[in-house]
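Explain this one:

_____
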Amino acid sequence: MEFWLACFVTFHRVVVRRSEILLACTASYFLISLQFVSASPINSDKVVAFSEYHQRLWDTRSHLPQISAISIAEDPRGYIWVATEGGLARFDGNHFEVFDGSISPLFADPLLRKVFVAPDGVVWVGTTDRLITICTDNHIREITFADSPLGRIDDIVWFEGAIYAGGDALYRIDVSHADKSKSHSDEAVTKLPITKVNALTVKSNELWVATDERLLSIGDARVVQEIDLASLEDRTHITSMALYENRLVLGTTSGLMQLDDYQQLSSYKLNALKISDSIELTFADSYGNLWVAGNQRLLQIVKDQLVEEISEIDGKTAPWFVTGFEDRWGDLWFGSRTHGIQRLRFDGTRRLGEAEGLAESYVWTFTHSKNGILVGTNRGLFLYANKQFNQVVADHRLPNKVVYSLFTDSNEQYWVGTRAGLVLLNADFSIRQSFPLLDNHQINSIAEGDDGAVWIATLGGLFRWKDNALQNMTAEFELGTVNIRYVFFDDKHTLWIGTARGVYQFTQGKARLYTDDKTLSETSVSYIGQLSDGRIVIGTFQSGFAVKNADGWRWMTPDLLPAAGVMFMAEDSDKLVVSTLRGVYQMSKQSLTTEGRPDTKLIIDDYGQEADADGIRCCNGAGSGRGILEDNYLYLPTLNNVAGLDLTQALTRERPLSTVVESLKTRNKQYFSGEPELPIGVRNVQFRYTTPLFYRNSALTFRYRLVGYDPEWTNVGGRREAFYTNLPKGNYTFEVQSRLKEQNQWSEGATFQFSITPFWYEQPWMRFLFLIAGMFVLWGFFYVRTIRLQRAKQRLEDVVQSRTRELDAANQQLAEANSQLKKASLSDALTGLNNRRYHDCNIKTILDRAERQQGVYAVLLDIDNFKALNDTYGHAVGDEVLMTFSKVLQQRVAYNDHLIRWGGEEFLIILNGNASPAEFITGMTAAMQQAPWPAPIAKSPPTCSVGICFHAPVQHHKWVWQHTLVLADKAMYLVKRQGKDGWLLLSPDDHAHDAIADAVIHQAPDALLTEDALTMRGSAHVIDALKVLSADKGASSD
């Protein structure tokens, strides 16, 4: 037993020191508004005070199971584990996965005391009555001794290949002999003769154990040293231990103590002052900080000197810190009994404000001076020198108290632009020149040319100060707007003018709109600068920025950048640092010349979900002086004082993303690891995956694919689940990658292998059986088919001979039937006359023959009042009238005329051009009087209206047969209108056909009467009526 104790001490020293370091870190985040109780004599820039960290809080509002965070640990995959008094939580930066009584009865008592992650990734959890482990496959089991729980466990450490757990007693668990499939046996668990253990830590090759009564050092398989605590104040016992600068620092119920070089306990003093609080947290981080918490305050100590004391947050009592932790990236985590967990992150940025003497938080602009840096704020002008701010101008010298832009000219004079005016100050800040013309103008930018002229960009136009005269140049330059945002002189002394409507250049005494690039001639400009290699860079509010390379402008559009706008740029070696309204990012200058997505890294996210905790409210305004770089230190204006960014520290700790597949879930079961073979019939799966990340987790984007199923990657944004349904049998590998939105490179993929079990009919041996059975079926089918074909062949030969004879007879019948069908298709069923289809099929032949002769007449006849007759006497009488009328017409037409039933009671006669239409109508009328009409109308035979048009044999350009039919139809219509029982011939005069072709088609029949090109003949009553109608039309048109 003593041998195992000694073995454990050496390894545990390293782990416990790291654990204690991490414990103190968590508390920092809660302190958003801090009160400095004691100033620190430490002046080293390497010391980062608590208040300079970015601090973020997660509590029950973020679904932490309970507000009391007692212990914190990190596993190899990057998860943060938090032991609370309401259960265990695993955190990936986005979601808390809770382990409580609903997950396992071992967590039925949720009051946890300690969480610890061993090097193999197994999570050890101490509770008030047992010790629990959680393997990477989420298998949960209890560690027992003699088949009994280990009791209360307050601390857990790793030492020389074994776990030591202390509480009611001290136990050693030999992990190498442990059966991870079940609770550890007595052979793996050793109970040591030490009870009432409060804390464990490792120093060198010794395991230090603090109990209620003693402090023990175990090494070389024996108790090396034992310190009796009876000499301490009454009821004093050790609550925590930390290894700080190779000293053992002890937190006790009576104050902070240390084990000196003589192995004697003594009070730990700061500047000769004793810390007598009841200490619950001692934690040393890798940055040289010792964090001590007690009496609801947190002390930050470096080299035995107090850096900062935190006792209030937003005017309220500070959280009750009990644990601290430092993760693999150096971020600090603190746990509290009252405020959940906090994370402290330092990225090289510091807020320079009230503590440094800056009395105003709204900062707008900077400029160099011989004594330091001038800073423009909402309350005047400040000078920053020797790390302190001093106000230099805040009175009547400023036309407006809001200093919006600053510029130092070649004479070391200060141009101070405000929200409402401009003033020129001497080096001693006395007024050198006022500019009443610029009163009430917001001054955005100021620049000086090589001729000493100073150019001023305002919201009221562009101004120039030269030879002690101020001139408005807006109209002279023909600028498209008075909203001038930026003025800048490049190394060739060319003046660049940025406006709300594009970029202008002023060179050789002339200003012109920059039209070499369409976007630059239209966009709203926020920044203009020049790189050290001479390239011009122009930033915009919404369109990204452009850099002028040798081959033209290269645009960095918003889809390629973390933010669209540009407020300021600074060069840092081969990098470009860009400030925006949404934060600060860094870009490789090489990306400015290469195609594709640029290499960018976000330094400060001031827009995402974590901006309140991790942002700096950067960066303000648009114009000159929106940042200043001095000795690798970048100063930026914010709404929360000056942001100082140490470029030597920014992004020094790269954080490669580690993507994790958490589980594969089916309908009835969840798999966490291994290569599971899913049960038969399970074809729908769901994957959960994530990337543990505790800064800008919401900026993560994922893509996944199922190797063996998906042809390509599926991009899913921030979604952390994947679903597949109806998967075929086979072996699969699910692969997922992640990256931050602005990054190009995807993380290394996380994979999860599994297989879909085939149904019985999908088994390989079934394929062989199916193949054999298929071959037999095909052979049988072929054999039976052959026999049937032979028999069918003989029957077919017999049938062919019989059918050939029948076919000959049928073909003859078919020919006769076709002839009759053709005749029937060209005849009217009622009258036996040719029908309209006959007309359509033969009109071309008829007209071709007419062209060789005398032309033809189109004669349209319509039985008058037929509808009334049909309605009065019925369809039978109507049909008999139609047949009688047809016989009359058949008797009157010649053999070479064509008689067609046109439709209903209308008939068309294509009359030979040699015939006389008047004679034909007269004879037809007489025949109608003598015809044998049906009895009901025999005493009053029907009459008809006839329209006639002559179709000349000469071909015309426009006039076709359709015009002849339409004109005949309109002639018939006019007869109907003028009393019926008559006829009318309308024909175009010679050579007038084409002239009136359109009128014939589109004009009403009455309108045609006014056409002089028409010949009109017909029945006397019709002609007389039409002459009256024509005269009326003519008078109306006059």
